[in-house]
């Protein structure tokens, strides 16, 4: 976008030059206003497009079976009903609260492991100087290009020999050993933005690396921790493949597997399936709304824009 500088000495310009400056300035202002309007329209249209599936899911969950068959899926229900949610919660063949408890246990402990392990690994990459640090970090980032499907069978065989199949261990314990390359990268970028003068002052006072990590770096990394926590919790909460592979007992199913079971039991009851989906999404929406400010701050300050 072209910017127009205001002349430092307008009195030295003749009337024709000053008139040209005024015209150019007005054109620049109009171009800026048009660009803002276009950007606003693009953002609104994008938001509407992405919100359409969510809107359809909520609308169908509030309709009865007869109204779904007689009306469009986009039309707002004429008679709101919350009986669908009650039916989902009280179904004995797919106990919602049991599935919710299993998902909460896995997501909570897995997220805690990701936060602790990724912070511990990111600290030496961000604050220490040792031989081969950058090459080792590039090797770590290269693991992000390895598809999970490639190691799925070897990983399952390993967990089978460890007698971890049909337990929560494969879904929780690996999170405590590294936390994932992307999370480590995010934490490293954020820690590199913390002034090193804090470390030097702490060293002069006799602090060790562990003291600096727990008392200086971690308290100043709240935004990055919130960002990684949201990412990890959402990923674990919505994970379908992991529980499908490692959990075989019905009483150990998560909400994602429970939705699949509920779909098999009620193939034509779309209002019940949509009600279950809404209930599964509520914790994620609440978490994102509570941590949105820290989420955006962590992304911006970590150098990812």
Overview of this protein structure:
- It is a single chain.
- The protein has 305 residues and is mainly alpha-helical.
- It has 14 helices and no strands.
- It has helices at 15-61, 65-70, 83-89, 96-127, 133-142, 152-161, 169-172, 181-192, 197-204, 209-217, 222-237, 241-246, 255-265, 270-301.
- Helix 1 packs antiparallel against helix 14, helix 4 (96-127) runs antiparallel to helix 11 and helix 4 (96-127) packs antiparallel against helix 13 (255-265).
- 69% of the residues lie in helices and 0% in strands.
- The chain folds into 2 domains: 10-70; 83-301, MetI-like (MetI-like fold, Orthogonal Bundle), CATH 1.10.3720.
- The mean pLDDT is 84.
Shape: flat
Q: Kindly state the number of beta strands.
A: 0
Give the termini distance in whole angstroms.
Answer: 20 Å
What's the helix-strand series?
Answer: HHHHHHHHHHHHHH
Count of spatially separate domains? 2
CATH architecture annotation of the largest domain = Orthogonal Bundle
Unreliable stretches: none
């Amino acid at each position: 976008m072209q910017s127009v500088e205001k002349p430092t000495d307008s009195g030295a310009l003749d009337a024709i030059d000053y008139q040209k400056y005024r015209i150019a300035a007005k054109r620049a202002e109009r171009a800026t206003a048009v660009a803002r309007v276009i950007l606003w329209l693009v953002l609104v249209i994008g938001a509407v497009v992405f919100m359409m599936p969510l809107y359809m899911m909520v609308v169908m969950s509030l309709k009865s079976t007869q109204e779904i068959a007689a009306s469009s899926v986009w039309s707002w229900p004429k008679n709101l009903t919350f009986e669908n949610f009650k039916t989902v919660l009280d179904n004995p063949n797919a106990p919602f609260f049991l599935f919710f408890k299993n998902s909460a246990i896995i997501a909570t402990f897995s997220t805690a492991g990701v936060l602790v392990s990724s912070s511990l690994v990111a600290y030496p990459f961000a604050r220490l100087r040792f031989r081969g640090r950058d090459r080792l970090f590039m090797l770590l980032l290269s693991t992000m290009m390895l598809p999970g499907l490639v190691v799925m069978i070897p990983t399952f065989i390993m967990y089978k020999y460890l007698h971890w199949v049909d337990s929560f261990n494969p879904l929780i314990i690996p999170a405590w050993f590294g936390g994932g390359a992307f999370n480590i990268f995010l934490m490293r970028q954020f820690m590199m933005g913390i002034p090193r003068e804090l470390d030097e002052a702490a060293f002069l006072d006799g602090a060790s690396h562990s003291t600096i990590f727990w008392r200086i770096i971690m308290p100043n990394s709240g935004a990055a921790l919130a960002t990684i926590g949201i990412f990890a919790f959402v990923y674990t909460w919505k994970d379908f493949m992991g529980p499908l592979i490692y959990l075989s007992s019905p009483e150990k199913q998560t909400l994602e597997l429970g939705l699949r079971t509920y779909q098999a039991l009620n193939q034509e009851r779309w209002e019940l399936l949509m009600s279950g989906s809404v209930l599964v999404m509520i914790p994620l929406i609440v978490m994102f709304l509570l941590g949105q400010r820290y989420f955006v701050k962590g992304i911006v300050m970590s150098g990812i824009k």
